[in-house]
């Protein structure tokens, strides 16, 4: 049941354009050891914690899931050019493993050029 519940959570949700903060979140099942890592990035967020707090609050509401922020960074998303660049870090959560985030984004946007770098803020 836990794996099925986790499989229903979209692994990637990003705003369609712009430069914005993102977080990599590990969503754990409270029933067993299963988990899924998800990427969330939104232009409305002033801080990385704004994204984490909203997403974790929604996912944990049912009491069956627990969330942990693995880090953050920034995303430059250009849907017209079909390019996404992942970079930077979060002052509060540290740097996410951009290689993990990038692989998830590539799966969600297979026709995009998706790149990453540890440089920048």
Automatic annotation (TrEMBL):
What is the annotated localization of this protein? Answer: Cytoplasm
- Its top-level enzyme class, in one word, is hydrolase
Q: Which reaction does this chain catalyze?
A: N(pros)-phospho-L-histidyl-[protein] + H2O = L-histidyl-[protein] + phosphate; N(tele)-phospho-L-histidyl-[protein] + H2O = L-histidyl-[protein] + phosphate
Q: Which UniProt keywords apply?
A: Cytoplasm, Hydrolase, Protein phosphatase
- SUPFAM superfamilies from the entry? PHP14-like (SSF143724)
- EC code: 3.9.1.3
Q: What does this protein do?
A: Exhibits phosphohistidine phosphatase activity.
Q: Which PANTHER family match?
A: 14 KDA PHOSPHOHISTIDINE PHOSPHATASE, JANUS-A/JANUS-B
Record text on subunit structure and interactions: Monomer.
Family statement: Belongs to the janus family.
Record's protein name: 14 kDa phosphohistidine phosphatase
Native organism taxonomy: Eukaryota, Metazoa, Chordata, Craniata, Vertebrata
